[in-house]
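The methods section describes the discrete structure representation at length, but only in general terms. An entry of this sort, consisting of the sequence and the corresponding backbone structure tokens, reads as follows.
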Amino acid sequence: MAENLAELDPPAPDGSVVHPLSDPIHAQGGIAILRGSLAPKGSVVKIAGIDQLCFEGTARVFDGEDAAMDEILAGKIKAGDVVVIRYEGPKGGPECARCSPSPAR
């Protein structure tokens, strides 16, 4: 691992794309623990790029990525809906390969 890391030449923090640890984009990280009616046993949620941490509205819940993608591509997800994809990721499935590009626009 040390040899692989030695070959890296990461860019210096520029304050625009790469921020130094002393000046993060957000004070907290890009994941949070979700609790409540959607996740009675708790869940990890990706919140990177989301400024609103409390949501009241329509949550569209899917038991897998394929069902969610079908609804998204069919235009059935409305602006303001939250898409919840269960049973994907390290524990529920091999990974959620298309989850990042799939939010409703």
